[in-house]
Amino acid sequence: MIEQFVKEALAEDVGRGDLYALVEAAMPASAKIIAKSDGVVAGRKYIDAMAKLENFSVTWLKSDKQTFLNGETIATVEADSHTLLRCERTLLDMLLHASSIATLTRKYVDIVEPYNVKLLDTRKTRPLLRVFEKYATRCGGAVNHRMGLDDSLMIKDTHLKTIKNLQDYIEDARKVIPFTAKIEVEADTLFIAQEAMAAQADIVMCDNMAPAQVEEVVAFRNENYPHILLEASGNISLETIESYAKTGVDAISSGALVHQANWIDLSMKMD
């Protein structure tokens, strides 16, 4: 999957061929990938796959999940000049995209870690980039939420509009979904959360609740259904996440890890 993704990304940029290479012969070349801002590395798996496909060597001075500072060299690359210059933009775009997500994710993780709360990503990813972007959140320290509709059953508010009896639905679902698949129910009120717990959901998501409301759900869970996991979600930001981490939930999910990640600054400098 990674190799195919890299092939398609290169093809998008190269098209029918790099016009630069028509002018003069290739020569031996080397370059450095240099940080122009602070951040967290993500993307090494993909760059390594590119190096194998395009026959260039890469020496990493920083690994996935490691932090870097403005001015540090992240990696060095060696190949002929045609190869390096043909791959430059795609290589940097992959490293920038993934590292930018990992960098923002690490900021969230640093806030919730003291409270023993897991940070989760969401399915709010760019089309066809889910695997890549969720890999980047892992590099930042997050735990992946479900990858798609097929690995767990989440009953959202839109689903609840179609379900007459939640307990009956969950009982029927247990008979047909994989044995290892969990069932999560989204709740925006204490009443719906209580109903979901009574129906034996594995996870209850406190969606768009204020921290005080989440605390009520946590208190009810702790007293009545201590085995059920609780997740907080909805409008989670760097400014608000600590207030949710303090409520006692098991996990907090945020789409912002991906869609609010501003690109950091990296560049390739030829030696």
Automatic annotation (TrEMBL):
<feature type="binding site">
    <location>
        <position position="89"/>
    </location>
    <ligand>
        <name>substrate</name>
    </ligand>
</feature>
<feature type="binding site">
    <location>
        <position position="207"/>
    </location>
    <ligand>
        <name>substrate</name>
    </ligand>
</feature>
<dbReference type="GO" id="GO:0034213">
    <property type="term" value="P:quinolinate catabolic process"/>
</dbReference>
<feature type="binding site">
    <location>
        <position position="186"/>
    </location>
    <ligand>
        <name>substrate</name>
    </ligand>
</feature>
<dbReference type="Pfam" id="PF02749">
    <property type="entry name" value="QRPTase_N"/>
</dbReference>
<feature type="domain" description="Quinolinate phosphoribosyl transferase C-terminal">
    <location>
        <begin position="101"/>
        <end position="269"/>
    </location>
</feature>
<dbReference type="GO" id="GO:0005737">
    <property type="term" value="C:cytoplasm"/>
</dbReference>
<dbReference type="InterPro" id="IPR027277">
    <property type="entry name" value="NadC/ModD"/>
</dbReference>
<dbReference type="InterPro" id="IPR036068">
    <property type="entry name" value="Nicotinate_pribotase-like_C"/>
</dbReference>
<dbReference type="InterPro" id="IPR037128">
    <property type="entry name" value="Quinolinate_PRibosylTase_N_sf"/>
</dbReference>
<dbReference type="InterPro" id="IPR013785">
    <property type="entry name" value="Aldolase_TIM"/>
</dbReference>
<dbReference type="InterPro" id="IPR022412">
    <property type="entry name" value="Quinolinate_PRibosylTrfase_N"/>
</dbReference>
<feature type="binding site">
    <location>
        <begin position="233"/>
        <end position="235"/>
    </location>
    <ligand>
        <name>substrate</name>
    </ligand>
</feature>
<dbReference type="GO" id="GO:0004514">
    <property type="term" value="F:nicotinate-nucleotide diphosphorylase (carboxylating) activity"/>
</dbReference>
<protein>
    <recommendedName>
        <fullName>nicotinate-nucleotide diphosphorylase (carboxylating)</fullName>
        <ecNumber>2.4.2.19</ecNumber>
    </recommendedName>
</protein>
<comment type="function">
    <text>Involved in the catabolism of quinolinic acid (QA).</text>
</comment>
<comment type="similarity">
    <text>Belongs to the NadC/ModD family.</text>
</comment>
<keyword id="KW-0328">Glycosyltransferase</keyword>
<feature type="binding site">
    <location>
        <position position="156"/>
    </location>
    <ligand>
        <name>substrate</name>
    </ligand>
</feature>
<dbReference type="GO" id="GO:0009435">
    <property type="term" value="P:NAD+ biosynthetic process"/>
</dbReference>
<feature type="binding site">
    <location>
        <begin position="122"/>
        <end position="124"/>
    </location>
    <ligand>
        <name>substrate</name>
    </ligand>
</feature>
<dbReference type="Pfam" id="PF01729">
    <property type="entry name" value="QRPTase_C"/>
</dbReference>
<comment type="pathway">
    <text>Cofactor biosynthesis; NAD(+) biosynthesis; nicotinate D-ribonucleotide from quinolinate: step 1/1.</text>
</comment>
<feature type="domain" description="Quinolinate phosphoribosyl transferase N-terminal">
    <location>
        <begin position="23"/>
        <end position="99"/>
    </location>
</feature>
<dbReference type="InterPro" id="IPR004393">
    <property type="entry name" value="NadC"/>
</dbReference>
<keyword id="KW-0662">Pyridine nucleotide biosynthesis</keyword>
<feature type="binding site">
    <location>
        <position position="146"/>
    </location>
    <ligand>
        <name>substrate</name>
    </ligand>
</feature>
<dbReference type="InterPro" id="IPR002638">
    <property type="entry name" value="Quinolinate_PRibosylTrfase_C"/>
</dbReference>
<keyword id="KW-0808">Transferase</keyword>
<feature type="binding site">
    <location>
        <begin position="254"/>
        <end position="256"/>
    </location>
    <ligand>
        <name>substrate</name>
    </ligand>
</feature>
